[in-house]
Amino acid sequence: MATYAIGDIQGCYDELLRLLDILRFDPASDHLWLVGDLVNRGPRSLETLRFVRDLGDRAVTVLGNHDLHLLALAEGGRKRTKRSNLEAVLRAPDRDELLHWLRKRPLMHFDERKGFALIHAGLPPQWDLQDALACAREVEVVLRGPGYSDYFRSMYGDQPTRWSSELSGLDRLRFITNCFTRLRYCDADGNLSLDEKGALGSQPPGCMPWFAVPGRATGDVRVIFGHWSTLGYATEHNTWALDTGCVWKGRLTGIRVSRSKPIEPISIPCP
Asked: pLDDT per residue over 110-125, tens digit each?
């Protein structure tokens, strides 16, 4: 029995199947971890959602910013366009079942036995593991509750930029959501730099990858994440970055999650 983690798919369903075939993934015995962003920009978001949902308990996927964007579109929190490649999902006969399933996915997954955490984007330096899990649950309760539609109308925005345990209401929920689904860079005090999206070295002085902040409280936690295609595959500071830009004609990358064996990436080109 093996556990495999795969980077951002974004509707690249055919490439996902090819990579799973190379990994020799067996849905009868193996487990699949996905870093989020199952949908958007790629050509087959609908098939990707159906496939992962149908894996049931064999698959764990955390929510990414594009997954939340799809849910917000469905609830009127964002304007729909006819050219959107999410229209196939929004017009599908099983749309409601798929969106209900997606809305119930976590923002963070932690496997105590394997000693790995799975997120989409990043963690602020002030949170330790228990803080991160608790904050994730706060937003998950809202997404799974009766007021989820209202939250999608208030979710977007870059403020606040720094964590405080005294944050409350929408400010608190928005900060947590931005960390788990949008964060790449911040400063040493944990102020988020959400506009910075480039490769390492392109950021302004004082701005650093979230995982490289000195004294990060989750520094002893193994974290698998995606979201950062310009970073590519990277293993630094006890983290594994798996977004290698498949939807941008890059590669789709997976690893076998193991506490005892060296972790090596396996990737395929995405035409």
From this structure: 999 999 999 999 999 9
- Give the DSSP H/E element, type plus range, for residue 35: none
**Using alpha carbons only, what angle is made at residue 194 by residues 68 and 210, rounded to the nearest 5 degrees?**
100
Please give the distance of CA 187 from its chain centroid, rounded to a whole number.
21
DSSP string, 45-71: HHHHHHHHHHTGGGEEE---HHHHHHH
Q: What is the pTM of this model?
A: 0.96
Question: Residue 210 burial (CB < 10 Å; 0-12/13-18/19+)?
Answer: buried
pLDDT tens digits, residue range 8-39?
Answer: 999 999 999 999 999 999 999 999 999 999 99
How far, in Å, CA of 161 to CA of 142, rounded?
21
Domains delineated in the chain: 3-269 (3.60.21.10)
